């Protein structure tokens, strides 16, 4: 990946986990916690990109990083996931025939593909990672029915998070290469906090950052 690199997380715990994996000084790498959800992620990323460009030192690569829910049978708890594309799964319209994504409405695309060079570099650095679509949602899935519907509608999806598409849109607008890296902390489905492994996932994020960045 080409430096300088901007790594965008949602919350401080994810930011600190990434920073813990970087060498002292981590020249050419900035890590920020932009907030939870696609809107906060897009706004925070866009601001960081604009400030860097105005200073004469624009970022060349943007990575959305953090924990995520994994689709059972596709990405187990503890797995490292790389996005082939980041897709906003709940951006569209409801209808009597079901959910209609932007593509069906003729309003463009709700997906941004990862930069092939960035994705290739991440796959070399993280050879055990699972590659597939990472869904971005504004409301985390909490029922078996919703999980099944998403899995059926998105057969290439391996994980669900809340920021990737927002970061990707900001990167695309700035002409900056984009990638998304996630560690699976919980299975997607009925909301059961006792099944979450946040501490382990954050430790995995540190390990992944050390290898990839």
Shape: globular
How many structural domains are formed by the residues? Answer: 1
Helical content band? 25-40%
End-to-end separation: 8 Å
* Overall CATH class: Alpha Beta
Rg from alpha-carbon coordinates: 16 Å
CATH topology heading: Rossmann fold
Average pLDDT confidence is 95
Tell how many strands the DSSP assignment holds.
10
Write structural notes for this entry.
With 213 residues, the protein is an alpha/beta fold. It has a single domain (5-212), classed as Nucleoside phosphorylase domain (Rossmann fold), CATH 3.40.50.1580. It is built from seven helices and ten strands. The strands form two sheets. The protein has a five-stranded mixed barrel with strand order 3-9-8-4-10, surrounded by four helices. Helix 1 packs across helix 7 and helix 2 (38-54) runs parallel beside helix 6. The N and C termini lie close together (8 Å). The relative contact order is 0.25.
Can you lay out the helices and strands and say which pair or pack?
Blueprint: E1 5-9, H1 12-20, E2 29-33, H2 38-54, E3 61-70, E4 80-88, E5 92-93, E6 100-101, H3 102-105, E7 111-113, H4 116-125, E8 130-136, H5 144-153, E9 157-161, H6 164-174, E10 177-187, H7 198-212
Parallel strand pairs: 1-2, 1-3, 3-10, 4-8, 8-9
Antiparallel strand pairs: 3-9, 4-7, 4-10, 5-6
Helix pairs in contact: 1-7, 2-6
């Amino acid at each position: 990946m080409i430096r300088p690199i901007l790594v965008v997380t949602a919350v401080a715990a994810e930011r600190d986990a990434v920073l813990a994996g970087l060498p002292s000084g981590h020249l050419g790498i900035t890590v920020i916690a932009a907030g939870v959800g696609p809107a906060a992620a897009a706004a925070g990323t866009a601001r960081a990109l604009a400030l860097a460009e105005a200073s004469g030192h624009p970022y060349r690569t943007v990575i959305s990083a953090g924990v995520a829910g994994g689709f059972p049978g596709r990405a187990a708890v503890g797995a490292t996931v790389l996005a082939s594309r980041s897709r906003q799964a709940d951006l569209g319209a409801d209808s009597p025939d079901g959910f209609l994504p932007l593509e069906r409405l003729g309003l463009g695309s709700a997906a941004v593909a990862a930069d092939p060079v960035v994705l290739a570099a991440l796959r070399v650095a993280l050879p055990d990672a699972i590659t597939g679509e990472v869904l971005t949602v504004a409301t985390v899935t909490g029922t078996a029915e919703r999980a099944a519907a998403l899995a059926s509608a998105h057969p290439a999806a391996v994980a669900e998070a809340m920021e990737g598409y927002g970061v990707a849109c900001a990167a695309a607008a700035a002409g900056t290469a984009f990638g998304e890296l996630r560690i699976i902390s919980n299975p997607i489905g009925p909301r059961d906090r006792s099944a979450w492994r946040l501490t382990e996932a954050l430790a995995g994020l540190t390990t992944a950052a050390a290898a990839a960045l």
